[in-house]
Task: inverse folding
C-alpha cells in the first residue's frame, strides 16, 4: 500500500504530551491536587462515554469512580510516551462499561479475557499515538457521516462491545455483511484522521 | 512483498483495535506489527480511531457530589508502587565518607549506612504490607516485588549482623599498583560474613569486573563474591562467610576477573589489606 500520506503531527501534540507526563508523574507521587486537576479536566468525557455505553446514571457514576481509582493506583506504571492520559482513561472507561453492560444483559464474555487497558501499536513515534482535538472532531464528523448500516455496525462493536458474530445475530444479517460494514466504517474514520 | 502470515494478521487488525482478540492472538499481532511497517501504520491509525470514537461520546457535566466521592475514595486508597523497592543506599554513605575525611570518620559512615539501610528496610517492610494486600490479584508482579524486597531486607540484615558481630575486625584496604588512590574498608566476621565498601575505584579493564578474595593462614585465596558496582567508582560487597577461612590473620584482596568471576584469581590486584 504505497503512497499513503503520513499522518500529520499537529504541533499541539508535543505540548500536550509534556503536560500529560507531568500530571501522571504527580499522580504517581500521590499528589491529590493532580488528581483533582485530572478529574476537572477529564471527568466530563469519562462520564459521557460511560453513560453512552451503559445508559444508566448510577452505573455510569460508579464507573467514573472506578476509572479514577484505577488511574490513581496504577499511575506509576503508565507510560506517557505510548499515548495520552485522556486516551488511557477512556480505554479504561470503555472496558469497565462494557463489562458492566455484559453483566446486566447476562451476556457471556466471548473473548477469553476481558479487554486489555493497554492496547498499543508497537513501533511508530509516540506523538503519532496522541489524538489531537482537531483529529477527534474529524473522526466524530466521519462517524456521523457514515451510511446508517455502517454506523450502526460500528457503534454496536464499539459502544456495546459486541463481536461481529453477535452483531450479525442481533441484526439478523450475514456475518460477511457485518464484517464488511465494520471494515468499511473503520476505513472511513481512518480517512478522517488524515484529511 | 507480503506473505500469507502478513495477510492473516492484516485482516485481524480491526479485531485487535476493537478488543476482540485473545491474549495469544494479541501477542501475535503485536509481534508481526513490530516488524511490518504497513501493519504498524494501520494499527496506529486504528487505535487513534478508537480514541476518536471514545471522544465522540458527548461529554457531560458531572454532578458536584460525584467529585467529592471520587476524591474521598482516592484518599483512602494506596498506590501500587514499582519504585517502592529501595536500592541499597551506598551513594549516601560514601558521600559522607568523602566529606568527613578518613580519620575517625569511618565508624560514623558505617553508622549512617546502618541508619539508611535500616530506614529503607523499615520502608520496605511497611510498603510490603500494603503492596501484598493491594496486589493479591496480580500474582506475577507480587512474586517479583516480594523477591526484590526480600533481597534488600536480607542484605540490610547481613550488614547489621556483620557490623555488630563480636568477632568482627576492620581491615583497611590500599590500592595495589596503579596511580589511582582508592579508598576501601573491609569488615570481616568469620561467623557473620564480609562487608567491603570501596570508593574511587578505577574503571576495571574492558570486559572485566572486580572480585573479592579472602586469604586465610595456610590456605589459598577463597572467593567472597563479586564487588557490586554502585556507579561512579564505588563498590560494595555484602557476603556470608565463604567456607575454608579459619579465624586468625586474614588478607582481603580485590582483583579484576571475567564477568561471573573465577574459582581462583587470575587478574591484576587492585586492593589489598591484611590484619
Result:
Amino acid at each position: 500500500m504505497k503512497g499513503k500520506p503520513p499522518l500529520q503531527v499537529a504541533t499541539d501534540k508535543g505540548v500536550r504530551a509534556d503536560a500529560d507526563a507531568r500530571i501522571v508523574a504527580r499522580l504517581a507521587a500521590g499528589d491529590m491536587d493532580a488528581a483533582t486537576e485530572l478529574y476537572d479536566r477529564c471527568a466530563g468525557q469519562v462520564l459521557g462515554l460511560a453513560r453512552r455505553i451503559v445508559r444508566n446514571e448510577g452505573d455510569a457514576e460508579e464507573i467514573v469512580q472506578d476509572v479514577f481509582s484505577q488511574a490513581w493506583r496504577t499511575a506509576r506504571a503508565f507510560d506517557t510516551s505510548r499515548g495520552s492520559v485522556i486516551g488511557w482513561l477512556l480505554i479504561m472507561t470503555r472496558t469497565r462499561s462494557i463489562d458492566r453492560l455484559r453483566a446486566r444483559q447476562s451476556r457471556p464474555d466471548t473473548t477469553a479475557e476481558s479487554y486489555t487497558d493497554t492496547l498499543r501499536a508497537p513501533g511508530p513515534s509516540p506523538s503519532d499515538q496522541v489524538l489531537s482535538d482537531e483529529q477527534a472532531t474529524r473522526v466524530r464528523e466521519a462517524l456521523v457521516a457514515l451510511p446508517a448500516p455502517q454506523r450502526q455496525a460500528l457503534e454496536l462493536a464499539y459502544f456495546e462491545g459486541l463481536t461481529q458474530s453477535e452483531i450479525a445475530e442481533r441484526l439478523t444479517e450475514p456475518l460477511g455483511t457485518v464484517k464488511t460494514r465494520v471494515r468499511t466504517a473503520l476505513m472511513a474514520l481512518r480517512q478522517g484522521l488524515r484529511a | 512483498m507480503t506473505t500469507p502470515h502478513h495477510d492473516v494478521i492484516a485482516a485481524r487488525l480491526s479485531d485487535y483495535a476493537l478488543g476482540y482478540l485473545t491474549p495469544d492472538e494479541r501477542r501475535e499481532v503485536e509481534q508481526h506489527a513490530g516488524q511490518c511497517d504497513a501493519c504498524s501504520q494501520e494499527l496506529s491509525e486504528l487505535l487513534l480511531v478508537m480514541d476518536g470514537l471514545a471522544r465522540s461520546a458527548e461529554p457531560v457535566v458531572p454532578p458536584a457530589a460525584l467529585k467529592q466521592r471520587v476524591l474521598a475514595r482516592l484518599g483512602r486508597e494506596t498506590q501500587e508502587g514499582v519504585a517502592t523497592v529501595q536500592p541499597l543506599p551506598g551513594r549516601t554513605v560514601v558521600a559522607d565518607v568523602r566529606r568527613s575525611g578518613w580519620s575517625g570518620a569511618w565508624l560514623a559512615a558505617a553508622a549512617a549506612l546502618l541508619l539508611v539501610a535500616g530506614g529503607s528496610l523499615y520502608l520496605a517492610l511497611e510498603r510490603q504490607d500494603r503492596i501484598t494486600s493491594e496486589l493479591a490479584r496480580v500474582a506475577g508482579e507480587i512474586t517479583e516485588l516480594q523477591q526484590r524486597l526480600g533481597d534488600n531486607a536480607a542484605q540490610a540484615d547481613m550488614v547489621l549482623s556483620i557490623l555488630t558481630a563480636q568477632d568482627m575486625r576492620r581491615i583497611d584496604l590500599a590500592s595495589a599498583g596503579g596511580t589511582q588512590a582508592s579508598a576501601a574498608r573491609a569488615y570481616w566476621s568469620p561467623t557473620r560474613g564480609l562487608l567491603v565498601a570501596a570508593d574511587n575505584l578505577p574503571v576495571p579493564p574492558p570486559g572485566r569486573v572486580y572480585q573479592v578474595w579472602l586469604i586465610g593462614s595456610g590456605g589459598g585465596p577463597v572467593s567472597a563474591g563479586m564487588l557490586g558496582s554502585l556507579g561512579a567508582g564505588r563498590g560494595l560487597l555484602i557476603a556470608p562467610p565463604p567456607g575454608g577461612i579459619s579465624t586468625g590473620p586474614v588478607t582481603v584482596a580485590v582483583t579484576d576477573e571475567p564477568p561471573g568471576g573465577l574459582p581462583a584469581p587470575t587478574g591484576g590486584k587492585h586492593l589489598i589489606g591484611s590484619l
Confidence is low (pLDDT under 50) at residues 82-105 of chain B. The two ends of chain B are 72 Å apart (CA to CA).
